[in-house]
Design goal:
alpha+beta; eight-stranded mixed sheet; elongated; binds N-(quinolin-3-yl)acetamide
């Protein structure tokens, strides 16, 4: 209702409601539309997932970085008609600055690389796990935020960098129990598109726009694709040839069409041979229709997909050799990928691979009467100093309540601090699995 809230009907300019400490109106306890809370159970799963992301990145010698979730809007203004641009979560702040919640991490990473300039040792191998935002009409009921794992290599022009990145993703999949019969990577190069467009002397500046249109190939009718291509100035003949080439599923066929001289073929051949050496050949396949939906990719592009075809892309990435120079930096070769936190969880559910994560504590410590609360606290501290996890009962509770809590938090041991034992320097220790109960000297408790 806006105006008539707490302070009764207000006239003239809306003034903030009077600060009162009683509840003036029931607030909505749900998180904002399209966003999630992470109560303990969900947070354990999220931590498990992010721990695996970080372990794989560490295994490959990558260093973790992070950036503000809020960036200047200018960082994301691209003219190629990307969906991520239409859904930018942008606004004007109180200093009248145009800002945006980041929709992806790569532009921030590029900004930091340029900021660091020559002071960092190339090649850079950086990774990040960060929340990304989009603002889309809730009609679609989709989430407005998700977390993305990114790994990027800056300063390596050869496709060994792309091969290394895909190797890291394969390592992650294996680590969580996913095999090449569950998922695969569709791999292509935007140089395929580039070579076809050049043969029809289409100006380079249309390249990004054409890629974004082509990326919608499985999302909108083919006639709309042709129409959009015509609108940006691609001739019907060129569009036909483009769509023909995009249906090629083998490198041999592609070589027949493009000839063996171009970079697209040599990059892809090198990549497939490296995949063999890395040992993940059975995970990847050439598919010329993969272009990805981000305008800045310039070379190899890849996306992880579930072989049952039930889910959206699991992850995606590629080479973006021009992004840093468009931000005014040096012309630095770069490649990377983004891996969202949503589809992978759906896939793990489908495959019955979700880990069973419960709260675990080693000890629950309880005073048997309230005069021993201090004693119980000293026992808890002693155990914690030894690195043991302790849930300390903070108020006097009936034993029935303590046993119930011990079971719920999966405590291994119940430590009871009773008066007669305490006076003899002892505490009572009950192993909850076996029920075995013993008296232990405080000094020997570990
Ligand atoms: C499946 C899912 O949650 N996707 C998702 C959710 N939020 C986003 C926010 C920004 C960019 C991409 C996003 C993608």
């Amino acid at each position: 209702d806006g105006g008539a809230g707490a302070g009764g009907g207000r006239t003239g300019a809306l003034s903030p409601p009077p600060v009162t400490d009683e509840v003036v109106q029931k607030i909505d306890v749900n998180p904002p539309k399209g966003t999630r809370d992470f109560p303990p159970e969900e947070m354990r799963l999220r931590n498990w997932l992010f721990h695996n992301f970080r372990e794989v990145s560490r295994l490959s010698g990558f260093e973790e970085v992070d950036f503000p979730v809020l960036e200047s809007e200018a960082l994301f203004i691209r003219k190629a008609g990307e969906e991520i641009r239409d859904q930018l979560y942008c606004f004007e702040d109180r200093g009248n600055r145009r800002v945006a919640l980041r929709p992806e991490l790569t532009p921030s990473l590029a900004r930091l690389v340029i900021q660091k300039g020559k002071s960092v040792p190339f090649p850079l191998k950086w990774f990040a796990v960060g929340q990304c935002w989009r603002y889309e009409r809730m009609t679609r009921g989709r989430r407005r935020e998700h977390y993305q794992w990114n790994m990027d290599i800056i300063g390596v022009p050869e496709v060994t960098a792309e091969a290394e990145l895909m190797s890291s993703i394969v390592t992650f999949f294996k680590k969580v129990g996913i095999s090449s019969s569950d998922v695969g990577f569709k791999v292509s190069s935007r140089k395929v598109l580039q070579e076809v467009l050049r043969s029809y002397s289409v100006p380079e500046i249309l390249f990004g726009k054409v890629c974004i249109i082509i990326d919608k190939i499985e999302k909108i009718p083919i006639d709309d694709i042709k129409n959009e291509l015509k609108l940006v100035g691609i001739s019907e003949v060129a569009a036909e040839e483009l769509l023909q080439v995009l249906s090629i599923k083998s490198l041999e066929k592609l070589e027949e069409v493009l000839g063996g001289a171009g970079e697209a073929i040599s990059d892809l051949k090198q990549l497939f041979s490296l995949a063999e050496k890395f040992g993940y050949s059975d995970w990847i396949q050439f598919d010329a229709s993969v272009v990805r939906g981000l305008a800045y990719y310039t070379g190899i592009v890849f996306e992880g997909f579930d072989r049952e075809g039930k889910l959206r892309a699991i992850c995606g990435g590629g080479r973006y050799d021009k992004l840093l120079s468009t931000f005014g930096g040096d012309d630095l070769p770069a490649c990377g990928f983004g891996f969202g936190d949503a589809v992978i969880i759906e896939l793990l559910k489908e495959k019955g691979l979700l880990p069973n994560l419960n709260q675990q504590v080693e000890n629950i410590v309880c005073a048997l009467d309230k005069n021993l609360q201090g004693a119980a606290a000293s026992v808890a501290t002693k155990l914690r100093e030894k690195g043991q996890t302790v849930d300390l009962v903070l108020e006097s509770k009936p034993l029935k309540w303590v046993f119930k809590r011990a079971a719920r938090i999966n405590a291994q041991r119940l430590i009871l601090v009773g008066l007669s034992e305490w006076q003899r320097g002892m505490v009572s220790v009950k192993i909850l699995a076996s029920g075995e109960q013993t008296e232990v000297e405080l000094a020997n408790l570990e």
